[in-house]
Sequence to fold (729 residues):
Amino acid sequence: MPLMESLAQLGRIGLGIFERLGRGHLLLAHILAGLGPLAVRPRLLIIQIHSVGVLSLLIITVSGLFVGMVLALQGHYTLSQFGAEDSLGIMVAAALVRELGPVVTALLFAGRAGSALTAEIGLMKATEQLSGLEMMAVDPVKRVLTPRFLAGLISMPLLAAIFSMVGVLGGHFVGIGLLGVDEGAYWSQMQAKIDLHEDIYNGVIKSLVFGFVCTWIALFQGYDATPTSEGVSRATTRTVVHSALAVLGLDFVLTALMFGD
Amino acid sequence: MRRFNGRRFFACTPSKPVDDCKTGTETIRAMPHSANSNEPLVKIRGLRFFRGDRPIFDGVDIDIPRGSITAIMGPSGTGKTTLLKLIGGQLRPQAGTIHVDGQDVHRLALRDLYKLRMRMGMLFQSGALLTDINVYENVAYPLREHTRLPQSMIRKLVLMKLEAVGLRGARDLMPAELSGGMARRVALARAIALDPMMIMYDEPFTGQDPISMGVLAQLIRRLNSASSLTSMVVSHDVHETAEIADITYVIANGEVVASGPSKEVLNSDCPWVRQFMRGEADGPVPLHFPTKRSLEEDILGEAHRKTGTCR
Amino acid sequence: MVQTRTMEILVGAFMAAGFVALFFLAMQVSNLSAISEGDGYHVTARFDNIGGLKVRSPVAMAGVRIGRVTAITFDDTTYEAVVTMLIDSNRNTIPEDTFAKIYTSGLLGEQYIGLDPGGSEEFLKEGSHISLTQSALVLEEIIGQFLFSKAEEGGDE
Fold:
């Protein structure tokens, strides 16, 4: 009965997905429950912002600079065909603030900080550190996962803002310094068109959502990893893949909600 | 060395591997350690635990008397670590009860379970030290988490505990810089930081050289008598464990197959226990993992079939 | 404890850099400085066609920005667009018979309301209505008219 077998297989896969989904949400609830007690221990948070945010700063800054510079080059080429080089500022800024800032930052974050989080938690599990905490009457989720979660949530919008800022400055450097666009036009057109609510707030909301999802995925994959070196390495890969898919999918949904009125 | 008032006995209960061992089935009664009770500190009754369909424990009764060192032995894969996790409330059994100091571990609210855990120390096989903080901070961790002691007090306590395991000089090292035996000793210092009523040792001797094995064995014994602890040692290192343990349980195939004072278990006549204790390769526990087909069938299967069809 | 101190400083610097970046985006990149939700008074005007005018489009006088559009509604009875604008409160000497017209900045630029002052002694105030208006120039209409007249010329010959 190959049909019945494949149906049963399908059912098992489906149940497995629901099971993981359920575990993920239960873990999230557990993590969020730890937010209150965390307020008493800000040091834990500072340590994690360091490892999640500060250590991602270099890759974010460098990437932002290059993305801004490429945008200016490409944008200038296209815009000059319509004689609209003056709009370069809008193009660079809108692309960065609305899309590339939050999305590319989230993708880089998943690769840099997310995978590190998964590996760290997975190894802590494999070396019984989480079990050890539990036996010391310390809740490992609240003590280990919650600070990391909050750090990711705080770091992501800041990293995205830094990415966009550096990108706008990189575009400025290429556009004005190399391509000879008028500096006044670059800024004034940008300021006339980029809207604080529509563009910048929405960008920040996007990166908050991405920070939430990426950190959650990373922590869940680490916490749910098979506690062996192979299991941890698989979990790390899953973190990057799932985060990237979640970010791109959510970006579409959020963009449709925010800009498609 | 250790005093027990209650009757000592030796039991090799009937079970799958040993059908011919039938002796007494009385319960161990240890000397009352604390004034308030005769009860064993840990009382396990009818414990059943399955991993998937595979039974790990199938009706296990164990008593850990107060103030004693009790060894739980058995071949690898018998779920000795699982037993410790069940006692610590990290796993939930399918049936049966575990009472620790009179409290049913799996009926406790989370808050009470945590309170109980503060009085239980556990030494993991790997040490389970937090790798991102140094030795001093590791030992200080439970104190910082559960007490509001001033820094100077914590410092004194930590140094005392480190001194007890002989590693006061290693306080600034990171866990990665420690040898396996040292890591276990640091973990031991951490486990006793809150002065627990019992410590569970998970395979403390595995992978240790003879010297650090000796150091650990001596430490376990010294701590037990000095701070009137109850200790539970899970191990398959028969001789080191039997030497320090007052009482030994042997678990196999999900059941207790032998229990009693260590010496008696060690010298048991019961063939299964003897095989395990003396490390004989073949005996009631077969060398070969059971299979349905014979070796000839497995190796010559194809050829057999061919010759069968070509007449 | 030098290590933790360094870390704390780094984290502080990171947070500061993040907020500076957000501030930069708000002030330098976006139109926050131009919005300046200050005090002002509301004035309405009716147009037959507002073209591409939007909420928050600028309101200018002699090319100087003096306010912005706050609401655009449709009047069911007269089939006209009702545009509400907020004029900065310090521009309180705009004559009542001022002429409101929808301009386009540049050929493809955004549209805005330009005010041409009249000569009245009365000034616009909260709730005033500008009655003299001219609708947006719709490019298609102009092109259509141009082609139509060209065709007529051609027919005459």
Remarks:
- Strands of chain C lie at 40-47, 58-61, 64-75, 80-88, 99-104, 111-116, 128-130, 132-134.
